[in-house]
């Protein structure tokens, strides 16, 4: 595959271009290479698709940010491994229908000619996953109820063995055509609704609706590093389009269960460990669980409550660049509740020494202060 061109370069805008500039430039490029103006020209077709893909990404602030930071690879990451770009012209027109309407001042002839061709609805599926599955990724399968093209009539809506009849009003073209300036404007036939065909005997399965509700299993690949609230887009897994329109997409919204021990902070993983004040005072070596097995960390003598120890690269991998974050261990100090006689004696002795140290420190400060005052 050839190297993908820079989206800004394709549209001929600089990197700081605002939404209005992007739209204006896309309009210019799209008009130049528009398939209605360049029938059968493969190169123009590719340029038109390329510009549409660039505009699709740059006109979406979220995608634009990812593209600015990570380039094409980042945007593909957002698409969850599904190939990017558009399948065909209908896909482009159904995504940017409003824009083309805006550009040409009337509905695009391609859309008008298939006024009944509609993109299928997008679907939402909410999925709760374990903390570890979000960290390491998981391949799973979901089952959802959705509309599918009717298998009995293969989506024609006609009873098997019968054929839809060619519409007598439009002679099967599905459209009425009139010319307006540079473009020909087509509107849908009023008898067949743009289908070009009329069903005489309806399919008993879907009763002519061409679609039926079915339960379908869909494979889901959760990439390592996903976070709570993120969504995966599965292109074409939504409901089927009508009249030859493309299917919608399936969006899987992820809800990550909290973990008992680990807490996520971006790509870092935070945990708390309890130390006795003796360990904190004298320093120690402590074993802590990480996402990838146990690690021994060193507690420096004189550690304070809330101090943190960082274990590099034991966090969660970044979806963007694949690099892992760190594990941050927060120190919590606990005070002993039940002391033996001997322990208590030692602590009282310790306390005595501490208060002597404190008194001499105060005296020293006082002495320094009074000496200064005497000057
Ligand atoms: Zn059917
Ligand atoms: Zn007709």
Structural features:
375 residues, alpha+beta, HSP40/DNAj peptide-binding domain, binds zinc ion, 10 helices
Parts with pLDDT < 50 across at least 5 consecutive residues: 104-115
CATH architecture of the domain at 263-334: Sandwich
Q: What is the CATH level 1 assignment of the domain at 263-334? A: Mainly Beta
Rg, Cα atoms, Å: 33 Å
Q: Give the biggest beta sheet.
A: 4 strands, mixed
Catalogue the ligands.
zinc ion
- Please count the beta strands (DSSP E, at least 2 residues each): 15
Describe the structure.
By secondary structure, the protein is an alpha+beta fold. Among the domains are: 263-334, HSP40/DNAj peptide-binding domain (Sandwich); 346-375. 32% of the residues lie in helices and 26% in strands. The termini are far apart. Mean pLDDT is 84; it is low at 104-115. One zinc ion (ZN) is lined by residues 167, 169-170, 174, 189, 191-192, 196.
